[in-house]
Specification:
The protein is mainly alpha-helical. The longest helix is centred in the N-terminal third of the chain and has 24 residues. The mean pLDDT is 78.
């Protein structure tokens, strides 16, 4: 991979846990996530208008758009519940472990075989993930529901990453960002309504919209950089692997900003998890 593209991925990786931590600080993370999605849609629309991009070009890749929509809806709703229930530093690394999903999907559905090195990478990922769940005086899987939400977020990330890499061969990043927000916002609200949450509560952020613009800007920059790398021919597996640089950073954010505990253990475990994902991708 070209050094410049690698640098953009690392910048995106550094930005990503920052806005996740911002969302985590809310009593209702699902409200903050919705605010970010809506504002990103407006930012992307302005970008499209200024650059003169063709919004209708998305019609040439609508099956991949549908796949990205499904993956992002699964990711966003699961992430909201993960952040609401658990510590950022414990569950963010699991939610971002999409290369593990890509390998598992290939084995289960595509009939692919894998080397001993790749199996070792999977073992490292699992060891790191389980170590992140450890608390003194608690059982290893003390909160299986939150862990389930984090794993669903991981699956969603893998789905939309694969789809986005294909979409970027045809359209510009802001075009995808406009369409994906138009699709995800109503489906996101619908999921929470079905789950029994107050829909009105999800829009409480509109009374103080300015505080969310900064969060949305950071999220937009992080997402845009990855999409641009895809548009320049970046491989989905390689990009997903390099984005794992955000895992140890998320642990530092969780400890320094959110004052979460057991940072030494979590940082070591997240590094094991990140190393395992790198091995998985390199061993393919």
């Amino acid at each position: 991979m070209e050094p410049f593209l690698a640098l953009l991925i690392l910048i995106s990786a550094a930005l990503h846990p920052v806005w996740n931590a911002s969302v985590k600080r809310y009593e209702r993370p699902e409200e903050a996530l919705l605010a970010i999605f809506v504002i990103i849609g407006f930012i992307a629309a302005g970008h499209v208008l200024l650059a003169g991009y063709d919004l209708m070009a998305i019609g040439r890749v609508w099956p991949w758009l549908a796949m990205s929509w499904a993956g992002l809806t699964l990711y966003s709703t699961s992430l909201a519940m993960t952040l609401k229930r658990g510590d950022l530093s414990a569950y963010y690394p699991i939610a971002r472990s999409s290369p593990l999903f890509i390998v598992a999907a290939g084995f289960l559905f595509l009939g692919e075989s894998y080397s001993a090195a790749l199996i070792a990478g999977i073992a490292l990922v699992l060891a790191g993930a389980f170590a992140l769940q450890y608390r003194r005086g608690t059982r290893l899987l003390d909160d299986p529901l939150t862990l389930t939400f984090a794993l669903l977020a991981m699956v969603g990330t893998g789905i939309y990453t694969i789809a986005d890499s294909r979409i970027m061969r045809v359209v510009e990043p802001p075009v995808l960002l406009v369409w994906i927000q138009l699709l995800v916002v109503p489906s996101y609200v619908l999921v929470f309504r079905i789950a029994g949450n107050s829909v009105a509560g999800l829009f409480a952020w509109t009374r103080r919209p300015l505080r969310h613009i900064g969060f949305a800007g950071v999220c937009y920059a992080s997402y845009y950089l990855i999409l641009w790398v895809f548009s320049q021919g970046g491989d989905a597996a390689a990009v997903a692997s390099m984005r794992q640089a955000s895992i140890p950073f998320s642990v530092l954010v969780g400890g320094l900003w959110l004052k979460e505990r057991d940072m030494g253990l979590r940082l070591a475990a997240s590094m094991v998890l990140g190393a395992g994902i790198v091995v998985i991708v390199l061993a393919r």
